[in-house]
Amino acid sequence: MTERPLLQAEGLVVSFAGRAKLFSPPDVVRAVDGVDLKISKGRTLGLVGESGCGKSTTGYALLRLNKATGKILLDGTDIMSLSPHHLRQMRRRVQIIFQDAAASLDPRMTIGDLISEALDLHDLHAGEHRGPRVRELLELVGMPQRFAERYPHELSGGQAQRIAICRALAVEPELIICDEAVSALDVSIQAQILNLLQDLQERLGLSFLFISHDLSVVRHISHDVAVMYLGKIVEQAPTNTLFNDPRHPYTKALMSAVPVPDPDIERARERIVLVGDLPNPANPPTGCRFRTRCPVAEAQCADISPTLREVGTGHSAACLFA
User: What letter does residue 105 receive in the DSSP assignment?
Assistant: First the structure.
């Protein structure tokens, strides 16, 4: 019997209205267009793609921070129909770490107060238990207890990210959405934060949705990877399968852009250069959305919108020629 995923999205759609000109009719941009995702307990799903493809919007929609349609199932419960009271309870189970950690911390509050605020919102560890819990959480993310008295402006980028992780952990979540959580950090600090997340996953049984455009980071931390293009998932597979045997032309192009540390292999391998720019999301191409930049596109690609189909064990791709 297959274990039920911790979180599952079915047909997720997020639309925004905007105007190209002042008095023109509004354009509807489907930033997320029919996305299906599954995140299993204790595993990490990496979500990758170009800037503007809808990765972060997907993450916010899963928390109902964006207005969306479709189904979002948390342990089998559809959270799209939850009342504000039950939605508050759900958000204890699913937390988010933002890209700019320092901007997500109130500069007027000490680190200890920031962590205590999360505990207050969910009535956790009140009274005499509050101080020890804050110190325990700081130690959990590798921060000295004395940092509880400091303010966000006194932290480095890596320290601020650790505090953001600490605050997310304060309410004892099951799933954490990491929105470009290491992209603003130096490479050495990135490695420390990634190792911390993996250690926390092993110790606490956490699940992660790791949103990034850095394929090397995603390969390091993820068990499974979903590739997104212009609001749609175009390929999904276990990490090693996807990196060793990409099937969608867009995924192949992404993989070819990742440098290989061996100079002989780097010189010999084929580089796929995509032609043109990302299409306007308000007016996407007919049929396959990638066809205007695809090196293997044919006439039928303009008429048929491919859906994800099985191309291997646990491996699916949305391409007629995969």
Answer: S
